Amino acid sequence: MTKLLRIDSSARLEGSHTRSLGDYAQTLWQTTNPAGEIIQRNVADGSIGVISAQTITGFYTPPEAMTTELVEATRQSDKLIGELQSADTLLITAPIYNFSVPASLKAWIDQIARIGHTFAYEDGNFAGLLNARNAVVICAYGAEGYLEGQPFAAANFLQPYLQFLLGFLGFETVDFVSVQGTTDPETVAESEVQARMDLDGLFTA
User: What's residue 205's pLDDT?
Assistant: First the structure.
């Protein structure tokens, strides 16, 4: 069964531009995949724990040496990785917070970026291990000018970070759809029209 994993990271439940565009993208995906399954996870609800020393120890402990404590410390990571590995498409919605990813999204990333599970390291080389090959990331920026070639692009540590990370984990295709000027109603309205057109091209092509 075709499966979509959607990760929302905006702290806003109402008035979130990324969530609104995520809803639009999800509807497009459902139309194309009427029998498909959707896993939707709101990481901003505090459900993703920050990794601890025990979690990191568990990440690097061979399966035969795992203790009860280490199994418990890595339980959430196992669950989140299972969701990710079962998906055909990953949809991430992420506003820029202080020039980078929201802390809640980083907590999810720290749980799923795990050696031997989502990436491998052998003979000095890294390799992604994810089964999913397609990712779509919807980004929102409070001001204009954050995108490539624009005046404030050097301050954008959201898109370049996610671009590298997802490629590192094995995604062959990572598409970004952005909305800018979210603090200005007129600007963001125009930007959202273009964002929906971009999503149409990605999900209905």
Answer: 66
> Using CA atoms, how far apart are residues 81 and 103, in angstroms rounded to an integer?
19
Which is nearest to 41 in space by CA: 96, 98, 81?
A: 81
Q: Could you give the C-alpha distances from 27 to 6, 36, 119, in angstroms and in order?
A: 12, 12, 31
pLDDT of residue 70: 97
Q: Which domains does the chain have, with CATH numbers?
A: 3-203 (3.40.50.360)
pLDDT tens digit sequence for 65-121: 999 999 999 999 999 999 999 999 999 999 999 999 999 999 999 999 999 999 999
Report how far residue 56's alpha carbon sits from residue 77's, in angstroms, rounded to the nearest whole number.
Answer: 11
The three-class DSSP label of residue 95 is strand
SS3 state at 27: helix
Pair 10, 102: CB distance under 8 Å: yes
What totals of helices (H) and strands (E) does the chain contain, helices first?
7, 7
Q: Are 188 and 151 in contact (CB under 8 A)?
A: no
How much is the pTM?
A: 0.96
| Ranges of H-type helices in the chain | 17-32, 53-59, 68-73, 75-86, 103-112, 159-168, 185-203
Angle at 13 between CA 12 and CA 19, to 5 degrees: 85
